[in-house]
Amino acid sequence: MIRGLDTLRQNIDVLLKRQENTSSNIANVNTPGYQAKKLFQSTLKAVRFQNYQGGPNVDQRNEIGDFTFGNQLDGASLNTEKGAFKQTGRSTDFAIENNGYFTVQMPNGTAAYTRNGNFKLNAQNQYVTQEGYQVLSNAGNPVTAGQNPDFAVVSFNNPQQLENVGNTYYTTGQTPITEVPRLLNGYLEQSNVATADEMVSLIQTGREFEANQKVLSTTNETLNKAVNELGKI
């Protein structure tokens, strides 16, 4: 019974992470350049159970069977499909038609990558993100506004493994591959979140929570009888 509580705790931890991920995707459905994240889970390896209550003297090994202790999260993957393009008419907005990410410089000096081309200009007439991070050129310098801005657009061999650090920025240890960008000025790429799919996932997770709650209630009643009733005998 105690083992049952451990299994339920592990299952509920997995469901909480799934719910957080789905909620994050839904919350960013209107965020330009946002890429939906999907979590992967698997069932833990079954464990053989046995006791020594077999035989005429109830002292021989008795194989009970296999038991699975629940599920585990194996990792996460980005949906790198392009979102729809929306015309904004703003001269500081850019959308990447082909593969790749804009390169920006984070406050700590490291590079991050984003498909969110919702830029603005700073006092030096340089393109920066809405958070004020400088957008870099192929030479690694800030991009100055002009007729043909030299944005550094890069791709990766495994873009699904990019790490989301928030606000549509991604980091990775992979070596960036320089792309020849096809840019749409005055457009933004919308989020690629499929709202209907995310809502279905949220409902499914809620139902799994309910099922685990029922099992928890049953386990609690069994423990109550074991402690308060059997203990009196």
TrEMBL record:
NCBIfam families recorded: FlgEFG_subfam
GO biological process, one term: bacterial-type flagellum-dependent swarming motility
Protein localization: Bacterial flagellum basal body
Pfam families from the UniProt entry: Flg_bb_rod, Flg_bbr_C, LlgE_F_G_D1
Species lineage: Bacteria, Bacillati, Bacillota, Bacilli, Lactobacillales
Flagellar hook protein FlgE/F/G-like D1 domain mapped to chain residues: 95-138
Coarse class of the protein's main subcellular location: other
Family: Belongs to the flagella basal body rod proteins family.
Domain (Flagellar basal body rod protein N-terminal): residue spans on this chain: 17-35
Keyword Cell inner membrane: no
Residue ranges of every copy of the Flagellar basal-body/hook protein C-terminal domain listed in the record: 185-228
Name of the protein in its database record: Flagellar basal-body rod protein
GO cellular component, one term: bacterial-type flagellum basal body
Protein's UniProt keywords contain Lipoprotein: no
